[in-house]
Structures are given as C-alpha cells and as structure tokens.
C-alpha cells in the first residue's frame, strides 16, 4: 500500500520536473540568488586604491586599512604621475615635498589614510614608537550582526516564496483531479490518503529540489564573490536548518491547502477557498520579516514556538541571532506535532469532500458529517 | 455474478435518487443500463464503484459484499471523463495499470497490447490534450481495461463517438464479455444496446421498471402481429383489436395478443393481404412501454 504513495509521488515529480516552467523557474531563481551574493561587492565591498609615487618611499597605508587593497605604482617624474592621474589610472600620487596630487577633491577616506600613514612614517623615522589602541568589546560579539540580519532577510523571502509556490501546486493538483473526475477512477484503486499524501510528498520533493538549488546557488555565489568571508560561524547549520523548517512548514500548509482545495471543483475557486491558509501564511511571513529585523523582540520569541508561525519565525530567529539549542528543539517538536495533526485532519477533510463534485462543499459539514 | 440488491440513495432531505434498485449481471453478460436523464443510472454505477455510498442495500460480487480490495479488480469509466490532460497516452495507461497493482513489466505489456488493440500506437507519445475526443475516449477505455478487470462498469462509453469509434469500442467490450467478464454499460443509444446486449435493465425515477434478458423482456411484451392490407373494404377492422394506421391505400393493423387466425380471415375478406406476420418488439418499444 505504501507503494501507491510513492507511485503517486513519482508521477507528480515527473509531471513537474519535465515542464518548461519548472526548468526555467529553477534557472532563473538560481541566477538571481547566485547574483545576489555579488551585490554587496558591487555596492560597497572592501576598498581598493591604486597609488602613485614619485621619488618617495611607499607610505605604510596598509597598517591603517588592513582590509583595503593597496597597489603602488612608481613614476619617474611628476608629469608622468599627472598623466596617470588624469587618465584615472591612479587615485592619488605622493610626490616629494610631502605633497599629494589628486584629480579633483580627494576621497575623504583615502585622505585620512594617507595623513595617518604619513604621520606614522615620520614618527617612525624620528625613533618614537606609539602603542596602538587595542579595541575590546564588553558586549556580545556583534561582528556578524549585519551579516546575520541580511541572511535572515533573504531566508524569509526564500522560505515564503518556496512554501507558497509549492502549496499552490498541491491545491491546483487536487482541483485538477477533482474537476476532471479522474479522482473517481483513482479512488477505486488507491486510498484518499495515498493520493493526497503522494501529491504532498511528490511536490514537496520538487520544492526541496528548488530550495536546495537556491541555497546552493547562494552559497556558491557567496564563496566566489568573497562574501562568504563575512558569514557568521555555523552557516552550514543555518542552511540545513532552513531546509528542515521548509519541510515542516510545507507539510503543514500543503495538507491544509489540499484539504481546502478538495472543497471546490473549479480552478477559479481555488484562490477563494484557500484564503484561510493564505492568511495564516501571510501572518507567518509578516512576523518572520519583523523577526529578521528584531530577532530578540518578545513577539518573535513567542511566535517562534507557536505552529505554524514557528516554521518561518524560528529559522529566521536562528539566522539573525544566537538561539539556545533546546528552544529550537522544542519549537521543532511542537511544529512536528502540528504537522501530524494537520495531515490527519487534512486527509479526513479531503476524503469526505473530494468526491462531492458540483457546488462548493461546506467545511464544517465535511468535518462533522458522514461519508458521501 | 454481480448482485445489486435494494439500493437506496437520497440526496439532501427529499430528493430520492434511488428507490430500491436491484438487478444482477452474470459473467460474460453484456448488460445495457437504460433510462432517461436523471433516472439514476450514474448514481447506481457510482455506488457499485464505491464512489458514493448507498443509504441502504448492497452490492455483492461472487456472493460476497463488495469492498475496496474487490473493486480494485474492477474497471470503471465514469460519466465525466477524467484523464491527466498533460500526461502522455502510454504513460497514463501504464500509470493506472501500476496503481491497480500490476508489476512494471505487466503494466508495460498491457499498455502496449491495448495501445495496439485500440489503434493508438501512433499517438502513444502524445499528451492526452492533443487527442481528438474519440481518441481520448479510447484512452479512457484503455485505462479501464489495463489491469484486465474482473468486472467492467462503464457510464455512457459510447456517447459522443463517431460510428467507427463506436464499432472499435463495441468490439473490445464484446471480446471482454466473451472472456467471461460481466460488462455493465449505460447508454441512450437503444439500437446499440439492442445489438450488443444479452440483458438490459430499465430504470425510471430511481426504480428498476424492467430487467432481465432481452428475449425474456420481448416475450413478456407479448406476441405482436402486423397485418398490411391493400385497398381493403372500409371499416374492415372495426371489430378487431389493435391499432390501425392508414397510409395511402395501405392499411396496417398492429395487434398484441388476440386470435391470429380470426384476424387473418378478416383481412383476407377485406382485401389483398400484403404482409402477415408476428414481430418482435424493439428495445425502444420495450423502453417506451416500461417507462410510460
């Protein structure tokens, strides 16, 4: 009997994976997410300067800007340096007599760097050494706060779009089978729970393929672009966690959608009948978006335990801030229980509604009533 | 033997769809299920297939109440056709074979056999939505037949088909019936039912008004006599039973029962007898008689 579940799932996977929409969607999302990893570099990223010098020694600029990329070029005379400046080949040129030539106003950061380096060089030359200030934080390690929030924000979007996309596929598939009455033939050979379960499983695998591809593209992009250097420790855990939470959230919302979709017989009615599910998902999205900006807020903490909100809020919280392992485990256990409950309820509603074609079936009637 | 006993089904509070429907179909028998729209054919078939549950009554196969396991060995074609529109013909037939419990090898073999038998070989790799209605119906039939079912329940299998497709489908069904499978099908095409069926069931407003072998129903209808007399004396049939129709100088008397010899004598005296013989009522006539 289990076999049938996998047969149905297999059909769903084959039916989806072969469509142009799936292939194109996958390529586009991989490119977009992979490209996003390069965005910080294009927008800001570590500074890089090319400096010229004419008959003077190199200034110890690197001491004051360890992250910056500094290149020196030597010119035989001021005229050559000027030409290079005006051509934009160098950002500034140090020439004899403690002068710096620039093309227009100097970049203020570069100006400061050169001043500091000059001071250091002259003090060093006079034999005095200065102990640099050592910075010590007495608060939490906030180095990765920015990166964590950025990752959390991206995660919210990815989770939301992946869940709603996959869940809509489940709903549309259910209505396709009900509307065409193919379900009448199917249900003479397999049980309703196998049909719904197989559909949820199959489309879940398709969603997981998408999700894994997007996360892999994001990580690969980050590695290539050098953004990965800014990642907080435990990034692998965050990614694996996101996949697990995606599975839980998807299972819950998919069972809910499958049950609701079984109430109607036409694709045009799907949007309407799914409203309770969409609303719940939108609220989860809103709260987790808020949590990505303020991961320690009480509402984020509370909702990260309450299913189904927890399926989106908890992964975002763990990405945005440190969360004790027991909290994640408890939240996961509660969500898993909710998933099991929703699957059972969904299967019951589905079984009682899917063969009742025609007008929309009332939910309450289905839950309390007898089989048709 | 498929036994349907005392099926009752109401929709809502007061709409009685079936009111004690009973009939039986023997192995190898083609059973034509006829009745006006809304008479209860589809409801009965859906109950047989377990798509609907009956309020009362039962369906038994080989003496045992029908359950899910038995129904899996049935073949079913619902009234409103259902196929995955974007799935390929061959894959679809194969998929349903697998769902009905065939091994991958058996499903592939059965699919190839049916595709050839139903003339779909060239369309095997096409999506169902690209097929004509007639060809989609063939695929639908293939889906019902792929697991070599023990019983066939087909709701309006011939509706909307061209004569060639009707022939092809009829042949396949007769072949299955000869193999010992009871075949129930509903249809509004009474000539077709007349030609194909060994027995029929007539349902009207949720009740079976007649069922049994076609021969038995015909005899029950009674011997019918048709006499055609050319240019008879006026009023020759006034004292005879039956109905008289006049067309030009020919007058036709149709009598059910009565003394055929007396009628013949009267006809001979009246004029030139062009036709005298007993005839069998058509299914259309039996149907009209039964539902009136």
TrEMBL record, chain A:
GO terms for cellular component: membrane. It comes from the Bacteria. It is a multi-pass membrane protein. Keywords: Membrane, Transmembrane, Transmembrane helix. This is ABC transporter permease. GO terms for molecular function: ABC-type transporter activity. The chain crosses the membrane at residues 21-39, 151-175, 196-229, 235-261, 273-291, 328-350. Pfam families: ABC2_membrane_3.
TrEMBL record, chain B:
Gene3D superfamilies: P-loop containing nucleotide triphosphate hydrolases. The keyword Nucleotide-binding applies. One of its GO terms (cellular component) is plasma membrane. One of its GO terms (biological process) is response to antibiotic. Pfam families: ABC_tran, DrrA1-3_C. The keyword ATP-binding applies. Keywords: Antibiotic resistance, ATP-binding, Nucleotide-binding, Transport. It comes from the Bacteria. One of its GO terms (molecular function) is ATP binding. It is a peripheral membrane protein. Residues 2-230 form the ABC transporter domain. Its main location: membrane. It is found in: Cell membrane. PANTHER family: ABC TRANSPORTER ATP-BINDING PROTEIN, ABC TRANSPORTER ATP-BINDING PROTEIN NATA. Belongs to the ABC transporter superfamily. This is ABC transporter ATP-binding protein. It comes from Acrocarpospora corrugata.
């Amino acid at each position: 009997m289990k076999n049938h579940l996998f047969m149905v799932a297999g059909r769903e996977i084959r039916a989806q994976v072969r469509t142009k929409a799936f292939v194109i969607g996958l390529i586009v999302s991989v490119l977009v997410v992979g490209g996003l990893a390069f965005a910080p570099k294009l927008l800001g990223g570590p500074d890089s300067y090319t400096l010229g010098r004419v008959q003077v020694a190199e200034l110890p600029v690197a001491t004051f800007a360890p992250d910056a990329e500094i290149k020196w070029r030597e010119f035989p005379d001021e005229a050559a340096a000027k030409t290079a400046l005006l051509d934009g080949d160098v950002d500034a040129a140090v020439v004899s007599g403690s002068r710096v030539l620039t093309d227009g106003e100097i970049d203020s950061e570069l100006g400061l760097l050169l001043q500091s380096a000059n001071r250091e060089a002259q003090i060093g030359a006079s034999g005095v050494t200065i102990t640099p200030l050592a910075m010590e934080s007495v608060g939490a390690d906030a180095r990765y706060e920015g990166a964590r929030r950025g990752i959390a924000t991206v995660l919210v979007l990815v989770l939301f779009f992946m869940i709603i996309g996959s869940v809509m596929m489940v709903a549309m598939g259910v209505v396709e089978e009900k509307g065409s009455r193919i379900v009448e033939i199917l249900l003479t050979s397999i049980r309703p729970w196998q049909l719904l379960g197989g559909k949820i499983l199959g489309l879940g695998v398709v969603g997981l393929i998408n999700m894994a591809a997007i996360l892999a593209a994001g990580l690969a992009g980050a590695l290539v672009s050098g953004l990965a250097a800014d990642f907080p420790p435990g990034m692998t855990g965050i990614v694996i966690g996101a996949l697990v939470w995606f599975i839980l959230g998807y299972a819950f919302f998919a069972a809910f959608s499958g049950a609701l979709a079984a109430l109607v017989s036409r694709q045009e009615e799907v949007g309407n009948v799914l409203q309770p599910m969409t609303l719940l998902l939108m609220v989860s999205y809103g709260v987790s978006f808020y949590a990505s900006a303020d991961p320690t807020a009480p509402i984020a903490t509370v909702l990260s335990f309450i299913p189904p909100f927890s399926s989106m809020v908890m992964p975002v919280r763990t990405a945005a801030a440190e969360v004790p392992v027991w909290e994640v485990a408890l939240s996961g256990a509660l969500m898993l229980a909710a998933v099991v409950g929703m699957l059972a309820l969904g299967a019951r509603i589905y079984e009682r509604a899917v063969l009742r074609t025609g007008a929309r079936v009332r939910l309450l009637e289905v839950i309390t009533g007898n089989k048709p | 033997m498929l036994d349907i006993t005392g099926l009752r089904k109401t929709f809502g509070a007061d709409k009685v769809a079936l009111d004690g429907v009973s009939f039986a179909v023997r192995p190898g028998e083609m059973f034509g299920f006829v009745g006006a729209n809304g008479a209860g054919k589809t409801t009965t078939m859906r109950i047989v297939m377990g798509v609907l549950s009956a309020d009362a009554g039962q369906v038994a196969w080989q003496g045992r109440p029908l359950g899910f396991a038995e129904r899996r060995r049935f073949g079913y074609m619902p009234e409103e056709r259902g196929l995955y529109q974007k799935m390929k013909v061959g894959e679809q037939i194969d998929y349903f074979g697998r769902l009905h419990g065939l091994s991958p090898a058996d499903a592939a073999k059965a699919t190839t056999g049916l595709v050839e038998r139903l003339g779909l070989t060239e369309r095997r790799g096409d999506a169902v939505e690209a097929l004509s209605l007639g060809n989609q119906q063939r695929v639908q039939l293939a889906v019902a037949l792929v697991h070599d079912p023990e019983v066939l329940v087909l709701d309006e299998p011939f509706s909307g088909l061209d004569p060639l497709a009707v022939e092809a489908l009829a042949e396949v069904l007769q072949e299955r019936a000869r193999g010992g499978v009871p075949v129930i099908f509903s249809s509004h095409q009474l000539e077709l039912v007349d030609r194909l069926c060994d027995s029929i069931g007539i349902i009207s407003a949720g009740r079976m008004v007649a069922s049994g072998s076609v021969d038995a129903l015909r005899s029950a209808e009674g011997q019918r006599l048709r006499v055609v007399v050319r240019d008879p004396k006026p009023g020759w049939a006034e004292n005879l039973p039956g109905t008289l129709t006049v067309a030009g100088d020919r007058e036709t008397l149709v009598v059910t029962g009565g003394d055929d010899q007396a009628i013949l004598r009267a006809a001979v005296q009246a004029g030139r007898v062009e036709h005298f013989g007993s005839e069998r009522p058509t299914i259309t006539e039996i149907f009209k008689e039964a539902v009136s």
